Amino acid sequence: MHIPASSNMALDVAPVVLLVTVLVAAPLAYLLLVVVVAGKKEKPSSAAAPTPRDDGRRLPLPPSPPGIPLLGHLHLLGALPHRALASLARAHGPVLLLRLGRVPTVVVSSAAAAEEVMRARDLAFASRPAIAMAESLLYGRDVAFAPYGEYWRQARRVSVVHLLSARRVGSFRRVREQEATALAARASTGAGGAAVDLSELLTEYANAVVSRAAFGDESARGLFDEFQSGRRQRKVFTDFQKLIGTVPVGELLPWLGWVDAITGLEGKIRRTFEALDGLLEKVIDDHRRRPRGEGDGDGRDFVDVLLDVHKNDKEVGIQLATNEIKAIILDMFAAGTDTTTTAMEWAMAELVTHPRAMRRAQDEVRAAAAGSTGVNEDHVAQLDYLKAVVKETLRLHAPLPLLVPREPAADAEILGYHVPARTRVLINAWAIGRDPAIWERAEEFVPERFLGGTAAASVDFRGQHFELLPFGAGRRMCPGLRFAEASAEMALASLLYHFDWEAAGGQGSREGTPTPSLDMTEVNGLAVHIKSGLPLLAKPWVP
C-alpha cells in the first residue's frame, strides 16, 4: 500500500480540461506564440534571494529550460510527465527548476539529490504544499498530504503504530490468503480459452483486501455486494481514486479557474465527497453500535482501531476527531488499491513478456507449495526469486513515478542549488530507477540483479537505498509498505502457482524467443497503468 505518493495529481490535468483551456485561451496563446517565435524567452525567476553560503557567496538557482509567459513549463510535460521530466534532466541536470503555471517546482532526478532531500535535509523538506484535491476530498486532515507539524506527527503515529505495524499487517493474513484464492477462482473463468482482463481482477483483489482490512468482513460485504447499491458504492470509491489523481486547472493557472466549473469538475468533486462522507459515516456508526474485539486479532479492522484511539485519546496520547478517522481511512484506500494494483499488473506483464523469468518464478512457487492445494504466506516467505521480481518491477515501473511533492518552509539547498521557501520539490523515482549511471542494463527486466552474489543484492525499497524509491524515504516515507508488499506477493504467488500465462494475441519477441506480445503503453493517473489493460490467457496448472 502506498500512501499516495504521486505528484502526478499535480500534473495530470484531464485532456478535456486542457482542450477547453486551449480553446478559450486561443487569442492569448497566439500572442504567446508570437513572443516565443520572436525569441523573447522567459528567464528563470529569481525573485527569492539565493541562500548565502558560509563563505558569503550566494547559491545559484537550479538550471531551468526556457519557459513561456503565464504557462511557464507546463507545455513541456506531455501525457507522461515522469518521462518528460527524465528527458529534461538528461539535458539540464539532476536538479531542475520549472514553473508549472504559477507553481515554482524543483525536480530531483538522481539518487544523490534524492538522498540530500530525504536524508541529509529531511527535516527541511518534511512538509507538503497545499493540494486542492486533498483539501476537497480528504477533509484536509489526512496523513499523506498533511503539512509537517503536530497533527501530522500524531496521525502518522496512528498509521505506523496502530494500523500498519508488522503485527497488524500480519493479522490480515487470512484476508490476503482468502482473497488470493478468490482471485485464482475468478481467473479460472478464462480457462476455456477466453482471455481474462487481469487488470480488472487485480483491482478487485486489491479493493477486497483493503475493504476488509479497513471495514471488517461484515461491513465490506454490505458496502460492496453484487447488487445495484454495491455497484454504486464501488463507483464512488473508483471516482474518488480518479479524482485524487487529478488537479483542478485553477490550482496551476488561477486565471483559468472558472474552467473547472464549466467542465463539471467542481460538481463531481462535491458529489463524490458527499457520497463518500455518507458511506463512511454509516460504517463508523455501525462500528460504534456493535461490540469490538480486543487485541490484534483478525476481528479488529482499521475502523475498530481508530475508534479505540478516539475513545482512549488520553491514554494513547493522540486526539482523533471523526473527520480525521474518515481521512485516514480514505488514505488507506487511495494508497492500497490503485497503486498496489499497478505494481501487480506490471509484474505480470513483465513476466508474460519474459518467459524464462516466468518459468523460474513458477518453478519456485510450485516447489515451495509442493503437496499443497494452493499457496499460503508460509510458502511466500520462501520465494526469493518472486521477491526479486517485485523489486525489479518497482524499479522499472514505480506505480507513482513522481513522489508526493515536498515543500520547504524556509529557504533550503539541494546539491549546492538554492531552493526558495515554498517551492514544490518533486522526486522522479521512475528516472532514478532507470538511471544507467546506477543500474547495469537499466532499461531491461532482470530480476536476477537482486539475488545473492550481485552488486544490487542488498538494495531494498525500505528507504535506505536511494537508487530504489517506490515508497519514498525519510520522515514522509510510505507507512503502508508492509501492507502493499504482503498483498502483492500473495496475489502474484497464487496466480503463478495455479496457471500458465500467455498474452491474449499477437506475436513478438523481447528476449530472443517468440512470445505473445503485450501493449505496454503507459497511461497516467493516480498511478501509471498499462493503457490497454492486461488481457491474458490463463491455462490451469495441474500438479
UniProtKB/TrEMBL annotation:
Q: What GO MF terms are annotated?
A: heme binding; iron ion binding; monooxygenase activity; oxidoreductase activity; oxidoreductase activity, acting on paired donors, with incorporation or reduction of molecular oxygen
Where exactly are the transmembrane stretches of this chain? 16-38
Q: Which CDD domains match?
A: CYP71-like (cd11072)
Give UniProt keywords alphabetically: Heme, Iron, Membrane, Metal-binding, Monooxygenase, Oxidoreductase, Transmembrane, Transmembrane helix
Q: What cofactor does its activity depend on?
A: heme
Instruction: Fetch the InterPro entries from UniProt.
Output: Cyt_P450 (IPR001128), Cyt_P450_CS (IPR017972), Cyt_P450_E_grp-I (IPR002401), Cyt_P450_sf (IPR036396)
Q: In which residues is heme bound?
A: 478
The entry sums up its family as follows: Belongs to the cytochrome P450 family.
**PANTHER family with a match to the protein in the record:** CYTOCHROME P450 71A2-LIKE, CYTOCHROME P450 FAMILY 71 PROTEIN
Identification of the protein by name? Cytochrome P450
Organism in which the protein naturally occurs: Sorghum bicolor
